[in-house]
Design brief:
Radius of gyration: 15 Å
Distance between the termini: 41 Å
Structural class: mainly alpha
Strand order of the largest sheet: 2-1-3
Number of strands: 3
Largest sheet: 3 strands, parallel
Strand content: 5-15%
């Protein structure tokens, strides 16, 4: 685990290579169960900016569905790199330059990593709501649906700022 973290930090010092989203359209995207702020935010980002027809699946390991695109899980194709949360990694890899998305990425980073890097607290409430949804044993798809509503509203608000 330590060697992996060292390697991730080494790789994160350079720019992340960008990816053509056309190669990721109509895919199944796999993440862990009971999604919280980074996983829900990443799924929202995927559906809005990368793969409008994305299907989401949930498992404990990326190897559970080898044909899917894994994110925010151990050995995932897209996950934390260096000090970036998964949402930030996705925005960089897919070259998403939308200013509102960048601000939301800062909010998700601070809520997920709790390092106050950007001094943004706006997503802490969404994070608590999503954690509460998981404690209510809501289905993962329902947690995503509710989270997407929150992120759609936040995105609309941030576009006007």
């Amino acid at each position: 685990m330590r060697l992996r973290k060292i390697d991730e930090k080494r790789r994160s010092k350079g720019a992340l290579a960008t990816i053509d989203p056309n190669n990721y359209r109509g895919r199944t995207w796999l993440t862990r169960r009971q999604p919280e702020i980074d996983r829900v935010g990443s799924a929202w980002l995927i559906r809005k900016f990368i793969d409008r027809e994305a299907h989401f699946a949930f498992a404990s390991k990326a190897s559970a569905q080898p044909d899917s695109v894994s994110f925010d899980m151990l050995d995932a194709e897209f996950t934390h790199v260096g000090d970036n949360c998964t949402f930030e990694t996705l925005t960089k890899r897919f070259a998403i330059r939308d200013k509102a998305v960048q601000k939301i990425g800062e909010m998700i980073h601070d809520a997920d990593l709790e390092d106050d890097k950007f001094h943004r607290v706006e997503c802490v409430g969404i994070d608590r709501i999503l954690k509460g949804c998981a404690k209510q044993d809501l289905p993962d798809e329902e947690i995503l649906r509710r989270g997407f509503e929150c992120f759609d509203a936040l995105y609309s608000f941030m576009q006007r700022r």
